[in-house]
Design a protein that fits this description.
The protein is 68% helix and 6% strand. By secondary structure, the chain is of the alpha+beta class. The protein is elongated and about 160 Å long. The mean pLDDT is 81.
Amino acid sequence: MRKIIQWRWPILIGMIVLTAALFMLAPNLTEQAEEAGSFQLPADADSQRAADILAQVGAGEETISLVYTLDKTLNDSARQSIADSVTSLQKIGEPITGVLNPFESEEMESQLVSEDEKTVLVPVTVEGTQEEINMIADDIRANVLPDNLTAYVTGEAIINNDVNTSSQEGLKRTELITVGLIFVLLLTVFRSIVTPLIPLAAVGFTYLLSQSLVAFFIDWFGFPVSNYTQIFLVAVLFGIGTDYCILLLSRYKEELQAGHSVEDSIVNTYKTAGRTLLISGIAVFIGFSAIGFADFPIFKSAVGVAVGIAILLIVLFTIVPFFMVTLKEKLFWPSKKSASHNDSKLWAWFSKLSVNRPLLSMLVVALITVPLLFTYDGELSFNTVDEIGNEYESVKGLDAISEGFGKGDSLPVTVIMSGEKDLVTEETVPYVEAISQEILKVDGVEAVRTITRPTGEAIDELYVDTQLGLLTDGLVEARNGLLDVQDGLAEIQNGLSQVEGQLPAGSEASSGAEGLQQAADGISQINEQLGLISGGMQQSGSTAQAAAQIGAVQQQLTQAGQGINTAAGELEGTTGQISELGGGLAQLASGVGEANNGLGEIAGGLTSAAQTTRVMSQSASVRDTGMYIPDGTLENEEFADVLDRYTINDQKGIKLEVFLTEDPYSTEAIDIVEQVKNTVQTAVIDTPFEQSEFAYSGISSVNSDLKTISSNDFSRTVIIMLVSLLVALTLLFRSVMMPLYMIGSLLLTYYTSVAVAELIFVNGLGYDGVSWAVPFFGFVMLVALGIDYSIFLLDRFREEAVDGVSIQRAMTVSMAKMGTVIITAAIILAGTFGAMMPSGVLSLVQISTIVLTGLLLYGLIVLPLLIPAVTVSFNQGVWWPFKRK
């Protein structure tokens, strides 16, 4: 320390130059956080895999919606205004890749116009970065939306951008409030104009250096970053930096008042309070470094605070001594006294209870905390919209969709099936419908839209029962056609008999008469056979057999027709009345030909029906799904738009849009998505899609992944953090017992504080739960920062417990000496987190509530009552398994 004092000016100048250079050269941390986005999921998360699949095949479009809310039902004027805006959108081009016109067809209107006709949706597909999507949204607001209608632009990308904007605005407010609050608190504590400037200068150096280094680390090493990075750097560094300065300055003033020289006072300060500060800093550094073991980038982004803690320790051991030795006693000007170094009367009173009556003291703590613990249900909320409130346009648009169409219609879940081969064939598509039917059975699923149900309703014509009904109708028509042919042939037979009867006896007509008789007999036999065929069709329904029998009848009918034509030719070669009879025979022969053609059409239809039923009987998809798609159906023009909308990657992927009955952001929606995933996994077994890759996109899917990942990360990071702290504190304190109950007291404080937050925000304000990220960050902040105060107390206790001083006496003195410092530090740190309250970002407000409640509870109740009571109860065993020095 004496070397640092000696070289104080070069050190200060070097720090100033380094800070200025890094600040000017470093990337913009705010922009880096915006580029990273709100949700940075691991690559193996379902929703992230879905995004990657869509991006790889060039189908990574997002949908934003123009939401028109009408005071009255839709009229011609409103229709025209909306139609004009659709036309304007279609002319914009990139990044807009598609616009759905709500008035294009009746089916489209039924989907995009609400039942009360007061809400109209215009979905717009856009492709580009989040920044590009929000730029086109701004352009739409300025140049497309009609002035005579109320309209909003909303969508997942726009909502996330509003969350980022709200967070950055909240950060600016937090920075200003934090600096002002710290200055006022320090002014009150030290009653000096100069003293508050020292912590602010030290923390200022630290914050600027930390922000610059973290920004470089993000560029160089892919360091995790989010909106939380800057916010927590501000709150933690200003809070804990001020606490450490208070510890140093209080001890420094105590040493000065003991009559030591300035240099000796500084050296003694860093031997005692400096050691405590170093232990505390290491503990906090370990706590925030443990976050690096999390998988979730948003959680890991708080690891930047560990960088800040390391820099803070350097600054406190270099810059603060400069001010101490330069300003000397003037550092506390104009105050002669300061509350910061006086013995704490409050903690002295607490010591009478906790040191002298430890069991009663523990009971008091239990009575305060345990009832609150029983109220805690661990309810979490994944509603991003709650983060920013209803004043944003994106949220108003989302609310309008929910009111007009139902909560689930705003942001559906998309199931993506992807493979290496063509998945869209007449044989595979029926299984898409089978999977859709299984998804529809999930409680909470309102509708599914895909290839086989583009409007949400299945296409009945694709089902075998409908097709068999049509075949049955065809068979009835064929049978009726046979009856009509029979009637026609009967008339021809009668005509032949009449012609034969009119022929005069004699050699000239005898051969013609004989031929007519043969033809009439043949037609009579044919009619009998047609009757048998008709009866057989009615009994057996065998179309193939009927077609073959009709073919045989056609041959006989051809022969009969030829006989009639021969007879007609012979009679026409005669003269007189007989010749005229030949003309009549020619007409009868023509009728036979027409009958033959009719039988040919019937036979062709029966053959086609037989082939269709044969293919159906051999089709696995028919047996498995009850659906049959004839060859060539998917190539029809009417299927083109459907395939374009619900397939990707040249039909190597298929999309199913799943609409929920619940709010997409709700915890109920997360449960539904989990059921959908399990259902799909089961439904694809023994289908052509069994080996396909499945992924799920949509905000409900993202939240489902968030729930799983955040829960796993919380458990793993907490274990790593607590074990690391236990090991480090064991080595630093040469005791296992003290770290154990230090950590235990913080766990008690944390769960009590989070229970208080749940009572306020869930039971009191009616939110679905505490925001999903809050328990993790609340735990890390409270434990990593709260451990400082137990270190402050117990390291002073270690210092006092020498030369045979009793445990009770050492703890009583330590409490009196450190009480004011700890209370002041806790209030200041709580104040810096309290400065996040006006940020307007719900998760930050909730985190600050947990930390603020926890720090005050710990500093005023748990630490002065529980820690001393446990310490004196263990007595000499508090050093186990080591020995007291």
